[in-house]
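Reading group handout, session on sequence-to-structure problems. Before we discuss, look at one worked example. The prompt was deliberately terse, the way you'd type it at a terminal:

> structure Membrane protein YgcG

The input record follows.
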Amino acid sequence: MTVLHTFAPMAVELPPNTDLGSLRSDLADDHVAAPKGKDQQELAAIVADARADGFPLSVVVVPGNPGHDSSLRDLATELGKNTEGTVAVLSDDWIGTYSDDISRVRLEWAEDVAKYRGNHPEEAVAAFVGRLEQPEGVSWGAITGLLLTLTVLVIAGLYVVKARRGPDAEAVVAPGDDAGSLR
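And the output record:
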């Protein structure tokens, strides 16, 4: 039975002193939740611009840094269950995200530029949104199609070369002769 316990999913770990109910109600008005005393106007403007561009974003700012940065992703996931689009949870140095329409790889790519901004969540959110608004640099579908096409062309080329050699290549060695002699 200890083996089954080892593979059990870990419990969600939220940052300390997190009240999901108050965060949800704070997000309801302008899609921004920040600690009391923190000016939300600049964050709300960035979020409103992103939403106007068709990117449904909600932002939560938590004070300090939690014990593990993964607790920010856990909080974003919990809030994302009741929120449409993408949720970004920022601490002083980290960011955790959840999205119902953006891949995890793309989210983490955007997170990289938003980390370590200190007590400047506005800069972090602007960098995060800016990265997500960039077109994807690599189209993996196009690369896969190109590799598949090249593979088919190589196979077809080898078939043509083999067909041109044809039966003449086998007639070079006559039966009964030494295996290495040519006529």
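Points for discussion. First: The chain has two domains: 2-133, 143-183. Second: The beta strands are 32-33, 57-61, 86-90, 95-99.
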